[in-house]
Amino acid sequence: MAQIISLSEAIRETVRDGDTVALEGFTHLIPFAAGHEIIRQAKRDLTVIRMTPDLVYDQLIGAGCVRKIVFSWGGNPGVGSLHRLRDAVENGWPRTIEIEEHAHAGMAAAYSAGAANLPFGMLRGYIGTDLVKYNQRIKFIDCPFTGQKLAAIPAHRPDVTIIHAQKADRQGNVLMWGVVGVQKEAVLAARRSIVTVEEIVDDLQAPPNSVVLPAWVLSAVCEVKGGAFPSYAQGYYQRDNAFYKAWDAIARERDAFKTWIGRHVLGTKNFAEFKQSLEAATSHA
Amino acid sequence: MAQIISLSEAIRETVRDGDTVALEGFTHLIPFAAGHEIIRQAKRDLTVIRMTPDLVYDQLIGAGCVRKIVFSWGGNPGVGSLHRLRDAVENGWPRTIEIEEHAHAGMAAAYSAGAANLPFGMLRGYIGTDLVKYNQRIKFIDCPFTGQKLAAIPAHRPDVTIIHAQKADRQGNVLMWGVVGVQKEAVLAARRSIVTVEEIVDDLQAPPNSVVLPAWVLSAVCEVKGGAFPSYAQGYYQRDNAFYKAWDAIARERDAFKTWIGRHVLGTKNFAEFKQSLEAATSHA
Amino acid sequence: MPDAGYTSDEMMTIAAARMIRDGVTLFVGIGLPSAAANLARLTHAPNTVLIYESGTIGAKPSVLPLSIGDGELSETADAVVSIPEIFSYWLQAGRIGLGFLGAAQIDKYANINSTVIGGYNKPKVRLPGAGGAQEIAAFCGEVLITLRHNNRAFVNKLDFLTSGGYFEGGDSRQKLGLPGKGPTNVITDLGILTPDPVTKELTLTSLHPGITAEQAVAATGWPLKVAAKLDTTAPPSPDELRTLRDLNERTARAHAGQA
Amino acid sequence: MPDAGYTSDEMMTIAAARMIRDGVTLFVGIGLPSAAANLARLTHAPNTVLIYESGTIGAKPSVLPLSIGDGELSETADAVVSIPEIFSYWLQAGRIGLGFLGAAQIDKYANINSTVIGGYNKPKVRLPGAGGAQEIAAFCGEVLITLRHNNRAFVNKLDFLTSGGYFEGGDSRQKLGLPGKGPTNVITDLGILTPDPVTKELTLTSLHPGITAEQAVAATGWPLKVAAKLDTTAPPSPDELRTLRDLNERTARAHAGQA
Question: Is C142 marked active-site?
Answer without folding.
Answer: no
